[in-house]
Amino acid sequence: MSKKIRTALILLLALALVIGGGYAAITSLVPDFFKPQSAALKLKNKELKQADTKNIVTEDISVSHDGRNLYGYLVAPRNYKDISLPLIIVSHGYNSNADVSSKFATLAAQRGYMVYSFDFYGGGNSTRSGDPDMLDMSALTEKADLNAVLDYWKSQKTVDSSHIYLAGISHGALISTLVAAERAQDIAAMVLFAPAFHVTDLVKQGMQELGYTDISQVPDTVSYKDHTVGKRYIADALTLDIPTAQRAYAGPVLIIHGTADTVVPYSYSETAQKTFPHAQLMPIDGADHSISDFVSVGTLLKLDEFMKKN
């Protein structure tokens, strides 16, 4: 082989490697540009375009299960009954209710989504679903509530059942994770605001400080850090394996958490981001535990981007 031919072949090989490496580098930087959309995602985006986002309606819709009647309300484009739209189910935090997510629900509905927010049984002093003293609730009773809500909406023809999302706030984010761990096939993605992944550690810390070494020593009600809970809450919290639940859900997860959170340490979300198989963590610098701290232009843009991809 002549020297000129050998040189030409080497140059061609080098060019191929550069082009190949360049393509790989570009696709790693902007993978969604090169990744073809699935048929389900194309259908979802088509549905969103059909939604009457200029006219938003709100309707009270309750879900019943096991003798409980869970209050909830739907915020959606006015023509939602005529088409099939993706749905976001919002779970509120500890000692709160569905009203906390009203602003988020309206913003999401204006982008074509149906949003259902509900009160957990015993979820707060202002709950409209029963047990306002919060002494008969626990993470597992709330898990049962969310499962019932998910079952209800999966059966509705107005919902694109392949695109049901769970959005949780604090304790509600923990509950969303527990449900998604067992029903990954039913959940397209999750958005978790300041998730209360510290609950089991907090309960163990409280028992230690109060001098309880075993659940049998715990009275029917316990007051700790300005909260009074029933024995059921403590007993159920001790059974939770939160890291295992996180690992069990392999779908997309967006975690949004304030770095100055004094209720749920930000470090728990840092750990969760590494534990979930596919999670992104969006820190809100200087934000505390209030969801109002999260509703900013930057957060909404990130959230909008995440939802469009999933």
From TrEMBL:
InterPro entries: AB_hydrolase_fold, FrsA_esterase, Hydrolase_4. Transmembrane segments: none annotated. Keywords: Hydrolase. Residues 87-205 form the Serine aminopeptidase S33 domain. It comes from the Bacteria. Belongs to the AB hydrolase superfamily. This is Serine aminopeptidase S33 domain-containing protein. It comes from Alloscardovia omnicolens F0580. It holds the Pfam family Hydrolase_4. GO terms for molecular function: carboxylic ester hydrolase activity.
